[in-house]
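Try it yourself: sequence plus NAP, in.
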Amino acid sequence: MDKLSKPAGAALRVLVLGGGGFIGRHAVGALLAQGMTVEVGSRHPSRLARRLPAEAHACGRRAVHFEHLLTPEAWLPSLQDVDVVVNCVGILRQRGRETYQRVHHLAPAALAEACRRSGQRLVHVSALGLQAPMRSGFLRSKADGELALRRSGANCCIVRPSLLDAERGGYGAAWIRRVARWPVHALPADAAGLIAALDVRDLGEALAGLARRPRLDHGGRPCEFELGGGQAMSLRDYLAALRSLHSRRPALPVQVPGWLARLASHACDLLHVTPFSFGHWELLRRDNLPLHNDLPALLGRAPRPVAGIAPAQGMLAPGLPAPGVQPQRA
Ligand SMILES: NC(=O)c1ccc[n+]([C@@H]2O[C@H](COP(=O)([O-])OP(=O)(O)OC[C@H]3O[C@@H](n4cnc5c(N)ncnc54)[C@H](OP(=O)(O)O)[C@@H]3O)[C@@H](O)[C@H]2O)c1
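Structure, out:
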């Protein structure tokens, strides 16, 4: 079956795995807006209605449990009548059989092989910052997943977004916005890295644009896209910018010793509370910026402002402003 030779005019059928999640539902909305037919993959298809945008209520739904989809053969029934798969599945914490390795590595590896055999294209959402040495099992499993895709020979690409922001929704995004409102900002002393948060709607649009491309690989290797918003800034400046949306009074920044922040990250992992994890503590310690920001090129425009901060001048050209460039208000 060759999915590249679809009759002209026929709508592409796209399966969005994790389509009820933060990234997934924005991908679903953007795919529908661009005229594609969408199937939503979820562990609980019957509970999707309240998580999906209204325009997606009529979409087909498929039950997918990554922890059980560990061979290409297991994937084949889920891929029937599908041209493109967009994988937006991820877990922050392990539960029972849903381990980091199964969800981020082994299932996507089997999926890529199934796509290679049956001709689907695959857009895989990963994350920035996986190249540096890391100890977190969460990050290592995502890096392993990327490696498996690189070796798969499938017509696929890897998309690595920076931290995501949205006015509403998203476990991590909503938590950061809530914390930013507090009058005191507790900042790990070693959170020295810069981030380039982007609007989740821009990511959805970029994923939909990629789904339309007939080729996602280059000479048998997945194309890799690193995406960020228009400004590079420290966590401290990012929280200050988010707070300034609600209050004129700046928060009091308080430094938390690195060891204490690390201990807190382990406690959060153990108790399954807050989106702060050991992996995030590791990520915060170094820059978490795209090497080359592909977002403007994928969108054909500047990224949306995040936290009221407009992209720096020149952002339509790929790349990010040099660290230390003053944020500009939209
Ligand atoms: N949010 C960010 O700032 C950000 C930034 C960069 C990268 N990322 C990465 O992007 C991915 C998605 O992030 P997100 O913020 O959209 O997370 P999310 O809102 O938690 O969505 C993840 C989705 O994965 C699905 N899922 C979880 N376990 C599954 C399993 N065992 N089998 C099948 N589906 C499963 C869930 O679908 P159901 O509940 O419907 O089954 C859920 O909708 C993650 O890998 C994350 O690391 C996120």
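One thing you can check immediately is this: Residues 100-118 form the longest helix (19 residues).
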